[in-house]
# Entry
Amino acid sequence: MATSYTRIMKDGLWDNNGVFAMLLGMCPTMAMTTSATNGFGMGLATLVVMAASNFLVAAFRNYITTEVRIPVYILIVAAMVTLVDLTMNAWMHELYKVLGLFIPLIVSNCLPLARLEAFAAKEPVLPSFMDGLFMGIGFTLALTVIGACREIVGSGTLFWDAHLLLGPAFQFLETRILPPDTGILVAILPPGGFLATGLLLVVKRMLDLKAGKQIVMAGAHAV
Amino acid sequence: MKLFPVRGGIHPDYRKDATSEKPIVALPMPAVLHILLQQHIGASAEAVVSEGQHVKKGELLGRAQGAVSAPVHAPTSGLIKAVTRCPAPHPSGLDQLTVVLEPDGKDEWGDLLPPIKDPFAATTDEIALRVAACGIVGLGGATFPSSVKLNLGKIHKLEMLLLNGAECEPYLTCDDRVMREFADEVVDGARIMAHALGTPKIVIGIESNKPAAIKAMTAAAEKVTGVVVAPVPVQYPMGSERHLVQAITGRETPIRKLTADIGVVVHNVATARAIHHAVRFGRPLINRVVTVGGGAVAEGKNIEAPIGADVQDLIRFCGGLRESAHRFVNGGPMMGQPLPSLNVPVIKGMSGILALTKKEANEHAPQPCIRCGSCVTTCPCGLVPVEMAAFIRNDKLDMAARSGVQDCFSCGSCSWICPSHIPLVHYFNYAKGALAAQDRDARKIDRTKTLVEARNARLEKVAEAKRAAAAARKAKTATPESDKASA
Amino acid sequence: MILAVGSLAAMGTALGALLGIASRYLAVEENPIELELAALLPGSQCGQCGYVGCAQAAKALAAHEAPVTLCPPGGKAVAEALAKKLGVTADLSEHEEHVPSIAYIDESLCLGCLRCAQECSVDAIVGAAKQMHTVIAEACHGCGKCEPVCNTMAITLKPIPKTVATWYWPKPGGSVH
Amino acid sequence: MRDLILLIVGAALVNNVVLARFLGLCSFMGVTTKIDTAVGMGMATTFVITVSSMGDWAIERFLLMPFDLGYLRTVTFILVIAAAVQFTEMVIRKVSPALFQTLGIYLPLITTNCAVLGVALLLVEGKMNFIQSTVFAFASSLGYSLVMAIFAGLRERIALADVPRLFAGPPVGFVTASLLAMAFMGFSGMSAN
Amino acid sequence: MTMLPEKSGPFTHAETSVTRTMTLVMAALVPATLFDAWLFGWPAIFLFITTVGSCMALEALCLNLQGKPFDRALSDGSAALTGWLLAMSLPPWAPWWVAFIAAVFAICVAKHIFGGLGQNVFNPAMVGRIAVLVSFPVQLTAFLAPHPLFAAASPGFMESLTITFGHAASLDSVSAASALGFIKTELSRGVPVSESLTKIPDLMDMAMGARAGSFGETSAVLILLGGLFLMAKKIISWHIPVTVMGTLFLMGSLFNAVDPGRFEPGWFHLVSGATFLGAFFIATDYVTSPVSKEGQLVYGFGIGLLTWVIRTFAGYPEGMAFAVLLMNALAPIIDHNIRPRAFGRTRKGEPLAVRGDQ
Amino acid sequence: MSSSNKPSWVHAAVLGIFCLGFGAMLALTNELTSDEIKARRIEDKQNSLAQVIPAAIHDNNPVTDVVTLVNDEGKDITVYRATMGGKVSGVAYEITGSGYAGEIKLMIGVAADGQVLGVRAIAHKETPGLGDKINVEKTDWITRFTGLSLGNPPVDKWKVKKDGGVFDQFSGATITPRGVVLAIRKGLEFFDAHKAQMLEIR
Ligand SMILES: Cc1cc2nc3c(=O)[nH]c(=O)nc-3n(C[C@H](O)[C@H](O)[C@H](O)COP(=O)(O)O)c2cc1C
Ligand SMILES: Cc1cc2nc3c(=O)[nH]c(=O)nc-3n(C[C@H](O)[C@H](O)[C@H](O)COP(=O)(O)O)c2cc1C
Ligand SMILES: Cc1cc2nc3c(=O)[nH]c(=O)nc-3n(C[C@H](O)[C@H](O)[C@H](O)COP(=O)(O)O)c2cc1C
Ligand SMILES: Cc1cc2nc3c(=O)[nH]c(=O)nc-3n(C[C@H](O)[C@H](O)[C@H](O)CO)c2cc1C
Ligand code: SF4
Ligand code: SF4
Ligand code: SF4
Ligand code: SF4
Ligand code: FES
# Structure
């Protein structure tokens, strides 16, 4: 099959976006989007793991028997996560201190596994890697956007503490939009996560409708 | 008499005063009668007359076909103009096979069956045959052939015949009048039925808003033994046989079973009177009492009308309309069916013709359900109308079936009370029809499958036979060769 | 280090063995869904669904390649049964278009050639050679296979007429409910 | 006893796995269109969580801790979970083929249900003993099953409502989940007492 | 003449309608509302107007966005009633934006995303209240002692405008804790309940309404009056109010008997917080409660129990709104499992046995 | 993907080999990184201790000078000691308070004379925007304890203002500050009770 990298890109970023189309990886999406910075950080960490594990599974796919494929995939994801965890802890410690909390959670994020099953298990190495990469980027963007919305409404800021994640050079990103202590707190509490995701889904639908696309009614889980 | 509580139900505005004091009057013979060949539950009757034939009053027009069916008879003497399809008093407005009879004005009786001398010495079969021959069907609305019900004593141990004089529908007073004016005939009919059924006891249940009827019936009952009049509370739908039985005996009829399964047979009071006529005089069922009422009618009346008379004729006899009617209804306002036109005939099951004003109908555009639960509290069958309607609205008929639509007997209590004016009963009627159609389809598919299998088997047999023949032929041609070889 | 690698490998081997055995042990239970689906279809092999016959149609259904509304002769009832079996929600709106019908043979045109009778998979057409044929309305399920084989165009499919017995109230329409 | 009750209430309601800890959300959004399926999924997950947490506890206690192999925790736990899922699959297939047909595609997903690994990691974090950890795992998964059932009930109702087209399906599901989470906030502060 | 009927029966109807129902409920709220308007003065009146106005305007907007006729918003009265009950559950001197945001959550999020009247699964007014409660704990716990209209200490008309619409000066000077909040705070400092109970208004004052609390909840007597009126009109039945209050009272009394230092007595639970308003007007919301009487008993019991649990053990002093939302969430399951027994069937739905004498 | 119908041992071998391979990889990585990570951990501790123990008062590495004590609840408390010229000049240890949403972990530094050197919140789950004002990045509230001691203010004034003490609460959030104040007071009492062991020179 001829591989269309444009297709892979479009799927990952928009059409088949992990969060907004497949409704996968919901847990980090809810838990880690209390601010745009947090969402971005979680997304980045996931991206690395996804690209690496997609690559590895595609490389080994001919040796993995059907019966044990799930454990093997999970093993690979878990190993990648641990690897990233250890490496960053040792050599990128400043970054680790910010992201460290999120990293073990990636294992149980079902998005990487879903991509392994749906893509990497069937496709060659390079497209798989690209799929992981773009799915990861799409995931990162989604989390950043959700985080931004919740942060603006809930705390009145945007990209607060970005310098901690990206270094002092990015301090300029940190914006205060509302005066201190005026946010609608519920946005950064658990209910806000669900509400923001739901409303953003509607926004995506409206954009899709405008572009003349059909509304996709169900996520990847719908039969 | 000790009564038992019945669940749910409503207390609508009864509006019976307009006709309850009007004695029954006979309709002047109309110029033409349209007698439907199917006026009952079961198989249609088969016409035995043809165009141009002259018939006498009471002569057979259509013969019953099959076990559950009923014949129809000529309400008067006259000429058969046609046997054709005419609109029926059915909401679909569809045609049905009809005998068109032009009265000759003589109203001349034909040969009637002989009276049964002593009905209380007759066998069940004799009485049931007579009732069947006279075309008597339940006049309480269900129009089930009464003879079939008279045989129930043979297979069930019965304790009681319950005469249904509840007449719980608003407006209707025809049963009330029959009980007041013909109490003795009703009681006699009841005793004949009880004899046929082999039940020792007769109870006549009458809603307590009909004191005159209670009085008249009590007087008639006192003349004989074994007949008790039981005033029952005014609570729609007390007239439903299952609920009446529950109110009087405290027993609940299991679903999909008959009241006979718990020892009670229920008949309408007018049915009893018709049976009295059939047995004592051999007279078939050729007319009935119809309440013509509603705010739009100039003067409401109880009319003894020949079967087949035009609804329009009855309304004209009542002085026509006083104002334009919003709805014309066949039967009571709760369970009655809308009339597709006024040019439809009176049938055996037609207890009332109502011309309702807009105000009486009190119709409003439906609003969304607010889940008030009134329908649930009200449903005398313990169903959850709000849930069933939601399923039906979303085309989840199977869920609606699981939720019990098929248990609903369309009493209308839920629709009546619904503050959002949701046409609940309409939903249920649709669902019941659609489910029945699905059922028919499914059975058809089953039949198709058996037919396909049968055909395949047949083809297989033919093929087998052909193969066998070919093999035989081959063997034949081969044998000589081998013969040659051996030779 | 050895311990780490060793214990992990041991766990993996054990789990792999378990899964292998499990798959062996469970493999016998073949998914019977195809047969069940085929049992729901009318079985007249008429091909209106676009598959060679009901068995193929069932296969396509099982693979989620065909909509549950595929079988016109089966009508709504079959579509719903299929939807239930497959655990999907059926969009039955397309089915409204398919009016259940049965075949009629125009007596004046029929030559008695027997072609239609041979075509009918439910033996709904009766008649001897050279004599007028008729359709048994109860048996015909309106598949239409007979229509094209008739040289004189004596066969037409007509919608089954509504009667008082089969009529029922239409679904309430209206604004909000 | 009092501690155990607090542990149960805390795990099941106050810090509900789904609504407060944000674990297992994909199945929460995905498998809750019907009450029966949701309850089935809840039971299967409860079983997996309880069984695998026992295994995980043993591994933590007898392998990872004594030999200082903390870095292998994720990998080993995941392997135990995979085994438990496979085991559950076998059980369901044997016990209820009907349930298997509806849950079939979700069973592998239990492996990646974060609730399973999440609860196991929480056990380690809480340094619980065997009884505590088993009770905690069971209570947490009960909390999971509870909200699965509640949410499925709500969605069955919503499926019959006139939800605006733009919101139909997942969006209104998220809004419902949001309001449910708001309701569960009423329990906050309960374990602190 | 033919007139093909488009509608099956029945062809008569009770004098019931949605508008009539909503109007009667509002009528029942009038006495308590007037009393509280007097009790808390102009700011409370402004708050009431803002809340009801926002709810109706937002209802019209939502309907308009969906292309539905929006005059319905005013005629069926449900939005006005939601606004009314929402206003009654807010602190009387809350600023306008609290009321507006609560109205957005109530009408747009809780009601119209689900499809509008009758389709919502959560009580809109309570969603509104909880959303602002968790978002603005400061404003939502700023209660005040009664400031009767025209009394010396109460703010004048203009001054009241700034309280509701302007940048209000801190309410600290006038604020008073509600009885529930007071006891909870004291308890967290180690003061036993039995002791702090002596410092709250006496039973009579609590029941009559002379206490700090939300705008509409304080006068138990007037609310009871309204509730009885609704029962007489058959708009609500006894099932929910009695089970809610009964359970709350029983739990309170039972545990108070065991440890008076830790648990408030039953009577206190009844007259404090939102017990009466919640039991008669909020838990009874048709849309979000079970439809069968049997289900309503379970529902009411659940609300009573959860209210007690949250009041007693959780972080929030009052749990009525949370309990209502939690039981709203359970209502579909209750409806699913607890239904009337169908005529002629057993509870399980099997046909009754023939000849069973029942 | 390989088809099934393979003998069981193949699956076992596949998974086993993958485990072996990735296990080895992880073990190797661990080997390579473990020293680094240990060093980083110590650095982190140093950094956090530095916030509550000013560099000026010690010449040792407090992370490595620890004593373990048992508090009233029977929990082990690790006390880091700052020494200057061999004399203990201050100690730091973790204390916990109960907040609105659970435990609040704090690190407190106390000078040898019982004065608070500094307090920092290490971990808590308080509500953002309300309870998280105890974080030094948000407000300076937590720094106000520096320099205070058990007698200053008097013990019965170690409360938030609302409860009749001297410490401000946050508007709308009293529970968190109340918990923190109480924790610090208890922390100082702990110091008082175990002064001897803490300051003892070994
Ligand atoms: C809701 C409802 C109300 C009914 N009301 C009456 C009634 O008032 N009088 C009556 O005779 N039959 C009434 N029926 C019909 C009875 O159930 C029953 O069919 C009838 O009494 C049997 O007698 P029959 O066969 O002689 O008509 C009602 C049925 C239903 C479902
Ligand atoms: C119907 C209704 C429900 C309420 N539910 C809650 C609730 O769940 N939680 C809450 O804190 N206050 C609720 N309130 C407000 C309280 O009754 C009371 O005013 C408030 O809890 C007392 O303030 P406090 O938080 O200072 O104690 C409700 C008010 C009404 C009218
Ligand atoms: C969503 C929410 C989160 C809260 N978080 C905190 C918190 O983190 N810390 C706190 O002290 N109070 C918090 N509160 C407020 C408490 O409920 C309580 O009202 C307050 O601590 C009492 O303080 P007051 O006496 O100043 O009103 C929160 C309230 C809500 C509604
Ligand atoms: C008895 C009764 C109680 C009601 N209680 C509430 C309520 O608590 N909250 C609310 O938003 N609406 C209430 N309503 C109004 C109405 O049901 C509400 O607007 C719907 O929930 C909106 O779909 C009530 C209505 C009635 C008849
Ligand atoms: S009576 Fe009408 S509004 Fe009330 S629950 Fe039933 S259907 Fe809904
Ligand atoms: S019409 Fe049917 S559902 Fe409605 S009340 Fe009567 S029996 Fe119940
Ligand atoms: S259309 Fe239906 S009956 Fe015809 S072959 Fe296809 S499945 Fe069989
Ligand atoms: S349409 Fe023709 S071929 Fe098909 S079943 Fe009817 S008669 Fe037979
Ligand atoms: S990310 Fe948690 S279950 Fe999917």
About this structure: Confidence is low (pLDDT under 50) at residues 218-223 of chain A. Chains A and B do not touch (no CB pair under 8 Å).
